[in-house]
Structures are given as structure tokens and as C-alpha cells.
Amino acid sequence: MGVTITDEIAGTVELDADRLQELKAFDDTKSGVKGLVDEGVTKVPRLFHHPPDKFVKATKLDNTEHIIPVIDLADVGKDPSSHQQIIGRIREASEKWGFFQVLNHGIPVTVLEDMKDGVHRFYEQDTEVKKELYSRVQTKPFVYNSNYDLYCSPALNWRDTFVCFLAPNPPKPEDLPVVCRDILLEYGSYVNKLGIALFELLSEALGLHPHHLKNIGCAEGLLSLCHYYPACPEPELTLGTTKHADSSFLTVLLQDHIGGLQVLYQNMWIDIPPVPGALVVNIGDLLQLITNDRFKSVEHRVLANHIVPRISIACFFSEGIKSSPKLYGPIKEILSEENPPKYRETTFAEYVRYYNSKGLNGTSSLQHFRI
């Protein structure tokens, strides 16, 4: 017998009664996946079991065709020739991969390390302390839980997450946990500046004025998701993060040294190995929509691992005002008779609402908005 529940993310969904009971029991612990591991779990609960993936993993890592570009930004603005070379590399990466890594991005390595340490400190706190912050109320300035789409996803991910909007209105310091408060605000300020610089380069890569993407609001909002992927006793049965594309305009990701991030390219899973001091940048759905499929929002996933916990910090550039009536559609300056619009216009809120209601089920939200 099915049970209908109303979930803040999913809306109204139909669930098997036994599954709903298991989900609620897990949610009610308020200790997430880390709580399972702390209790010494030796088997992955069935809620986390994922079906086998149909795509193959690329094994020839020495093949340069299957290496995500690493782009050094040191010479941006240095001279016209160097600048255009960087623009060309960003254009190629955005059109072919939807992913690239950046070095010399302006954020000190000490800040990157402090940010990872701050996230680690949060998750290593006593469970009773974290329980006070566990919530599914998405409007809070700081939200900690496990699996935002808990009640609508086909299989849960082996990770816990805390979420915080860093722009346009940074949270009050007192609304953030002391263990990561200062570094979260400092890191957000740095990423905000980097995002504006990246949008300038992406605008130029499209043949537009450098401020075009910024002026239409792509860099207004900044949302951080700080993930903790505990070591997993049976990593072959589950995933750290299911195959998905991002709903944002652009994502800037800081990953630790553990690895596990993969991008889907030509029906193969390609590893994105951690590069010391680098940040991973990827195109989001809304940037693919407004560039009329020129830049690619590509599916990616995170593998579970059985060795040590993994930490990553994903910062999503989105619209700043959630309820704004502003419409986003393919940029008129890049359209032509040969390149007519492929998407209908949508508000940011409508897109994200659809994306969230669908959950991380492995299908693209963009199809819903195609003309």
C-alpha cells in the first residue's frame, strides 16, 4: 500500500509504506550518514542501494583526450595574446566538456585549506551538537541534513550536507556554527570575486561584452553546499552523489585530495583528479539554456569510497532574488536564423522548483524547457 506525503522539496509524492518508515527512521536520528558510520554499520542499508550504472569508466588516463583541462589564469589581462589564449581554452572546455579546473584563481591556498578544515570540524563535532542544527526547512540561513531529496529520490546518496546562502545577503555571523563561521564568510567573499571574473571570461568566450553575463544577473546569488562523504563499507552498492547536472549558471567546487568526482563524456565516466591548489569549474543548466546549448551542462557524479571521509565545497552561482519575475531565455545577441532559440523563457525560481521536484534521478531538467 502506498502512502502520500507532502515534502517541502518534492511536493506531494507517493511512497511505499515500508520505505517511508525506513526513511523517517533515518531522518529522525538527525545524525545523517555519518551517524550510521559512527555506529559501526558494516552493511549499506537498502535505502542507499543504487542500480548498476550502464556507462563505462575510462581507464586510459594517459589519453590526453580524456583529461579535463587545467587552465592557469595567471596571465589574464597580462597582454592581449595571453588573454585570448585563456579565453580560447575556456571556450573549448565549456563547449566540449562543460568542466575545467583553474589555477592562480586569486584565492590563497591557505584559505582553501582553512575552508576544508572548517567543514571537517563541523562534521567531526559531537552528534548532539549537530542535531540542534539538523533541519529540512530550506528558508533557514544555515541548513544541515542528509539528502535534500530524501523523500523523492530513488536511492539515497552516501553523504551529509550543510547549506548556506553567501550572497547577495551573507548570513549574520551568529546564524553560523562557530567552528566554521569565519572561514565560510571569508571563502564566500573570495569565490564571489572569482565568479565575477569567470563570468567576464565566459562572456568574452561567447563574443559578448565582458560584463554581459554579470549584467543579466548570473553572478548575483551564491549558494554553498558543504558535503561530507563518510567512508563506506560497501562502496560498490551506493554513490556519494548520483549522476546529475547542476541547476545553477556556474559552479565552483573545492574538493579535497581523496578524489571520486567523475564527469560523463561520450558515454564514459572520466575522473577529475584533484589538482593541488586548483578549483573545479562547471557549466550549469541555466548557462546552457541561455547560451542555447553552446556551453554544456554535463552530468557528473561522486563515487563512494571505503578508505577515508571525503570533503567538498560546491558554490553555485544563481539569481540573487528567489522570487524575481525576471525571465531567462537564449541570449538574443548569439541567436540567428541558423541558430534559433531552443528553449522557452523561464524564471530562475520556476527552473529550480522543477529541478528540485524531480530530485537527483539522473535525468536532465533542461528537456522540460525545450521548445
Account of the protein in words:
The structure is a single chain. Helix content is 28%, strand content 23%. The protein has one domain: B-lactam Antibiotic, Isopenicillin N Synthase, Chain (Jelly Rolls), CATH 2.60.120. With 371 residues, it is of the alpha+beta class. The longest helix is centred in the middle third of the chain and has 25 residues. The strands form 4 sheets. An 8-stranded mixed beta sheet has the order 4-5-13-10-15-8-7-6. Helix 3 crosses helix 6 and helix 4 crosses helix 6.
Overview in brief:
By secondary structure, this protein is α+β, with helices and mostly antiparallel strands.
The residue fraction in helices comes out at 25-40%
CATH superfamily: B-lactam Antibiotic, Isopenicillin N Synthase, Chain
List the quaternary state of the chains.
Answer: single chain
From the 3D coordinates, which CATH architecture would you assign?
Sandwich
Largest sheet: 8 strands, mixed
- What is the number of E strands? 17
How many alpha or pi helices?
Answer: 9
**Count of structural domains:** 1
Structural class: alpha+beta
Assigned CATH class:
Mainly Beta
Straight-line N-to-C gap:
38 Å
What is the global morphology?
A: globular
Radius of gyration over C-alpha positions, nearest whole angstrom: 20 Å
**What's the arrangement of strands in the largest beta sheet?**
4-5-13-10-15-8-7-6
Q: Which fold does the CATH topology refer to?
A: Jelly Rolls
Strand content: 15-25%
* Overall mean pLDDT: 92
Q: What is the element string, with H for helices and E for strands?
A: EEHHEEHEHHEEHHEEEEEEHEEEEH
Poorly predicted sequence stretches spanning 5 or more consecutive residues: 1-12
Family: Belongs to the iron/ascorbate-dependent oxidoreductase family.
Protein name: Fe2OG dioxygenase domain-containing protein
GO molecular function: dioxygenase activity; metal ion binding
Keywords: Iron, Metal-binding, Oxidoreductase
